[in-house]
Amino acid sequence: MRLEKCWFCSSTVYPGHGIQFVRNDAKIYDKLLLQIFRFCRSKCHKNFKMKRNPRKVKWTKAYRRVHGKDMTQDSTFEFERKRNRPERYDRNLAENVLKAIPKIEKIRVTREERHHKNRMKGKKRKIQKEATRELEQGISLVKAPLALQKDPSLTLPQKIKVSVSQQQSEDNNAMEE
Amino acid sequence: MIQPQTHLNIADNSGARQLMCIQIIGAGNRQYASIGDIVVAVIKEAVPNMSLERSEVIRAVIIRTCKELKRSIGMIIQYDDNTAVVIDQEENPKGTQIFGAIAWELR
User: What InterPro entries has UniProt attached to this entry (chain A) (predicted)?
Assistant: First the structure.
């Protein structure tokens, strides 16, 4: 039993799920090439039949990898590579692998979160800037400009800079002691 | 879902190229044949200078269908075309080579 990856969205296909499509790619009778496409659900299957390229369909893993939204290269991916040679059963090996799987999973998840965080780095400041701009420009939608002029408390608070002089800090230190 | 008048490709080197299904063997009232069923077919197109000729009536077993094959373990397999392999009366294949994928139902 093997857990396959969906050809379209790259999610795992568990046994009993999905559909496999076998395509004969042979043009010449003697040379025969086979391709097996596995799909996790009919959504992926239908998109495939529509001849959509998964690299252009935004919710697929292929798109996210190509456009840098998700990690592409990492050493944790090496553990999950497809191996065609079956391993001889070794109890110790099996035990170690079962212990290692959740650890590797955890590492991979933390690295992916870090990748996401790096990607979203400059975003908070940008959002705040846009928000202040929107408030300044569009406050008339909320309150009429005349009302704002009458009642100054309704305007945005101005940033007040408080400069602490050196003298004060020295005095504070004296008090602490 | 092969029924009479369905055209089938051939996946062996028996000499036929295309068959048209005439009848499903052992069917009774059953409408359709699927993978593993034997059909009676007439050869519509044949490779020249081989033992089988055009408009010869032969038997064939279906090995691939565009309609999905559902297995009891939950696996569903769908092929790209409808294909058959030419058979004689004792259910031995007439050709010596078979091309393409074959499901294990046909063992």
Answer: L24e/L24_sf, Ribosomal_eL24, Ribosomal_eL24-rel_N, Ribosomal_eL24_CS, TRASH_dom
